[in-house]
Amino acid sequence: MIFHQVGGQNKLTLWNKITLILWIGISLALLSFFTFTFFIIAIVVGVVIFTMSFFRSTPGSVRYSQQDKVPPFSNPNYRHKPPKDDDIIDI
To answer: What is the DSSP string of 10-58?
Structure first.
C-alpha cells in the first residue's frame, strides 16, 4: 500500500528509477562485503585450528593394539555368569 497512487498513475520517474537501482546496488554491495568478511574469518579460524593441531606436542588419539583382550571402557573384574535354570518350573 506504500506505492499505491490515487488516479491510476503507475509510472515511475527517472529519478525514482535511478534511486531504486542505487539502493539495490548498495544493498548487494553491503551483503557481499559482510559475506566475504565472514568467509575470511572462517578461513582464518580454520587455519589457526589446523596449525594448533599440527604443532600439538601430545598425541591426539589413543590407539589400542590387537593384543588388548579387554575392549576399551569395560570393567576387567566383571565375569559373565551363565544364567541359572532355577526359575523355570517343569511340570
So the answer is: -PPPHHHHHHHHHHHHHHHHHHHHHHHHHHHHHHHHHHHHHHHHHS-SS
Q: Which residue has the higher pLDDT, 70 or 32?
A: 32
43-69 burial string, b = 16+ CB within 10 Å, else e? eeeeeeeeeeeeeeeeeeeeeeeeeee
CB contact set of 64 (below 8 Å; sequence gap of 6+)? 72
Cα angle 16, 18, 22 (rounded to 5 degrees) comes to 115
Mean pLDDT of the chain: 77
Q: What is the reported pTM? A: 0.43
Q: Is 70 exceeded by the pLDDT of residue 55?
A: yes
Beta carbons of 33 and 26 less than 8 angstroms apart: no
